[in-house]
Write a structure and sequence with these properties.
The protein is an alpha/beta fold and 586 residues long. It folds into three domains: 51 residues, Immunoglobulins (Immunoglobulin-like, Sandwich), CATH 2.60.40; 368 residues, Alpha-Beta Barrel (TIM Barrel), CATH 3.20.20.80; 64 residues, Immunoglobulin-like (Sandwich). 26% of the residues lie in helices and 22% in strands. The protein is built from 15 helices and 29 strands. It has an eight-stranded parallel β-barrel with strand order 8-9-12-15-16-17-20-21. The chain is elongated, with a radius of gyration of 25 Å. It starts with a strand and ends in a 17-residue tail after the last strand. Pathway: Glycan biosynthesis; trehalose biosynthesis. It comes from Umezawaea tangerina.
Length: 586
């Protein structure tokens, strides 16, 4: 068996296999190799006695500081040989965190909940990072060994069982990966080679364009291809790509997109790359033939911010700009609110316009909530903690009736009462204290008292963040679950709701009333505290779905406070209604 490692500056490298050291042989390009039989291994550089895990490790049974373990991809017995993949267009994404999705917090226990997602109408499951990080509990964004599945979740075989089980139920799997930084504990890459170049807000960044960066880029691309090829994942969500500092003519993202497209052709199934970006630049999702990077989609934070302000009334920090009259309608039609316009939070102009004539809406993900927008609040409170059920229903209707790809965060579908807070479990006490102090100082600057900010290192913080599945059967929560199920079914049964053509979308926002036109369907939302009567541009034929009291007469519809109605206009050639109206408390 051959062991290899890239260590171009080392004068000598040994591999410790099952407790015995073996000298490695230098090869071309700074690569070292040795043929040794064994299972557990680590590398020792020059005269150091520090045994370091493999930067390309696939298995870390003793954590990020322990030895790596050999892993044979060919030994796993897949049952998804007939799986042909899931395209993003027309899909619905469900974001979940393995450690808090179930009481057990494991990949195997998550499999037992997949039928709930199928019943809900989900098509793609987005899993927060499963790569190895120091400690037992954490969000996963402080990973340091990107190819090894976090052992407390179950390790590599458990992740394969999860993906296999998803495919058996018709669910595609998207995996959240972090290439913009490494975590603060166990990041030994720089001991081997010039992997690092500078820092960003979260930690050391990668050397993507400096000397010897070819192998660093290869490290990233090979990791991405490994998840897609060897773990049968259907796509990747790329964390904070704006922090990938790359001045090459061909950006890392474009290189990645080219190689993923090639792999997709070889595998015969669609593979999706979704960017999280703060740039408001649609070049990320513009085809390479059109001068873009060729990614399939990106998150749309501007739309989230508009919805958040419209539903909660919060206008502090970066939310201030989105309180502008008509901001929600404008962003629904234009994708970005900041499109070469002034951003008061940044103190400069930001973004560029989207050409809605050529770019389809499915390339942008729309959501009321996600792990960041909940977890990065001081107390990790969900929108359901402060917003009425009626307004939550309106927000969900806007998301699912939009031309964008809808995404929901675990538990949102029943208005879960459990928070999702920031938590970590670094064993190093000095690091743990620094994270704890930094978190409290950050929110103290925004007016929160220290006692109000949960201790991220307290195991109780992670426990509080676990979903309480029992409450999904309680009457008030079940009404919300029925609403989400009905909205997703309506989107599936009426193709005009999933139509991604942005140029055909028309949205009006007059005071507290928003009207969205989707072919022969009209979504009418009353976000106000009193009943309203709204004129339609054509006679309404029937109400397909509603929350609250609705009366339809000719070209007018009357809605109770904080409610919505989806109306099919008279003479429509659309399919007949398949969903009944819901109660006012939905």
């Amino acid at each position: 068996m051959s062991f290899t490692v890239w260590a171009p500056k080392a004068q000598a490298v040994r591999v410790r296999v099952d407790g015995t050291d073996q000298a490695m042989t230098a090869g071309t390009g700074g690569w070292w190799s040795a043929d040794v039989d064994g299972t557990d291994y680590a590398f020792l550089l020059d005269d150091s006695d520090d045994a370091l895990p493999d930067p390309r490790s696939l298995w870390q049974p003793e954590g990020v500081h322990g030895p790596s373990r050999r892993y044979d991809h060919g030994a796993f017995r897949w049952t998804d040989g007939d799986w042909t993949g899931r395209q993003l267009a027309g899909g619905v994404v469900y974001e979940l965190h393995i450690g808090t999705f179930t009481p057990e917090g494991t990949l195997d226990s998550a499999i037992a909940k997949l039928d709930h997602l199928v019943d809900l109408g989900i098509t793609l499951v987005e899993v927060l990072p499963v790569n190895s990080f120091d400690g037992t509990d954490g969000w996963g964004y402080d990973g340091v060994l990107w190819g090894a599945v976090h052992e407390p979740y179950g390790g590599p075989d458990a992740f394969k069982r999860f993906v296999d089980a998803c495919h058996a139920r018709g669910l595609g799997v998207l995996l959240d990966v972090v290439y913009n930084h490494l975590g603060p504990s166990g990041a030994y890459l720089d001991r081997f080679a010039p992997y690092f170049a500078g820092r960003n807000d979260w930690g050391p960044g990668l050397n993507l364009d400096g000397p010897e960066s070819d192998e660093v880029r290869r490290y990233v691309v090979d990791n991405a291809l490994g998840w897609l090829r060897d773990f049968h994942v259907d796509g990747l969500r790329l964390d904070a790509v704006h922090a990938l500092l790359d001045r090459r003519a061909t950006h890392l993202l474009e290189q990645l997109a080219v190689e993923v497209d090639a792999l997709s052709a070889g595998l015969g199934r669609p593979l999706t790359l979704i960017a999280e970006s703060d740039l408001n630049d649609a070049r990320l999702v513009t085809a390479r033939e059109g001068g873009g990077y060729g990614l399939q989609a990106q998150w749309s934070d501007d739309l989230h911010h508009c919805l958040h302000v419209a539903l909660t009334g919060e206008t502090h920090g970066y939310y201030a700009d989105f309180a502008e009259p008509g901001a929600l309608a404008r962003t629904l039609t234009d994708v970005f609110f900041h499109a070469g316009t002034w951003s008061s939070f940044r103190g400069r102009t930001h973004g560029r316009p989207v050409d809605t004539r050529v770019l389809p809406g499915y390339r942008f993900l729309a959501y009321l909530q996600n792990h960041d927008q909940i977890g990065n609040r001081a107390t990790g409170d969900r929108m359901s903690a402060t917003v009425s059920p009626g307004l939550l229903a309106c927000g969900a209707a806007i998301v699912f009736c939009s031309p964008y790809t809808p995404m929901i965060f675990m538990g949102e579908e029943w208005a879960a009462s459990t928070p999702w807070q920031f938590f970590a479990s670094f064993p190093d006490q000095e690091l743990a204290d620094a994270v704890r102090t930094g978190r409290r100082r950050e929110f103290g600057a925004h007016g929160w008292g220290e006692a109000e900010v949960p201790d991220p290192m307290d195991p109780a913080t992670a426990r509080r963040s676990k979903l309480d599945w029992a409450e999904s059967d309680e009457p008030a929560h079940r009404e919300v679950l029925d609403l989400y199920r009905s909205l997703i079914a309506l989107r599936r049964d009426h193709p005009e709701l999933a139509d991604p053509r942005l140029a055909d979308l028309a949205v009006e926002q007059l005071g507290t009333v928003l009207v969205m036109r989707r072919g022969d369907l009209r979504l009418v939302c009353n976000l106000g505290a009193t009943a309203v009567t709204q004129s339609l541009d054509s006679a309404g034929g029937s109400v397909l779905l509603a929350s609250g009291d609705v009366a339809l007469a000719g070209q007018t519809v009357r809605l109770s406070a904080e409610s919505f109605a989806i109306v099919q206009t008279a003479g429509s050639s659309s399919s007949q209604p398949t969903s009944a109206s819901l109660s006012a408390n939905s």
